[in-house]
Design a protein that fits this description.
By secondary structure, this protein is an all-alpha fold. It has helices at 7-34, 39-76.
Length: 77
């Protein structure tokens, strides 16, 4: 029961992951900068938060795209 993931779902996952990573990195870096943390702490904290938010964005992108595909198939019938 292996099916190929549609390209639109992969594209949405990549886009969601990229946006989530960038947003997470920037917000954590800004927060740490405002707290007066050294640059190395800003980078490592930003990377950790960016990875977490990137994974969330990947899931959201896949969920939205998968829902759209499912609704399209339901209403097509």
């Amino acid at each position: 029961m292996t099916k190929q993931i549609p390209p639109s779902v992969i594209a949405a996952m990549v886009a969601g992951g990229g946006i989530g990573t960038a947003a997470g990195f920037m917000t954590a870096g800004e927060r740490l900068e405002e707290q007066g943390a050294p640059v190395s702490k800003q980078l490592t904290g930003g990377i950790g938060n960016g990875i977490k938010d990137g994974l969330i964005g990947t899931g959201i992108g896949a969920g939205i795209s998968g829902t759209a595909i499912a609704l399209k198939q339901i209403f097509r019938k």
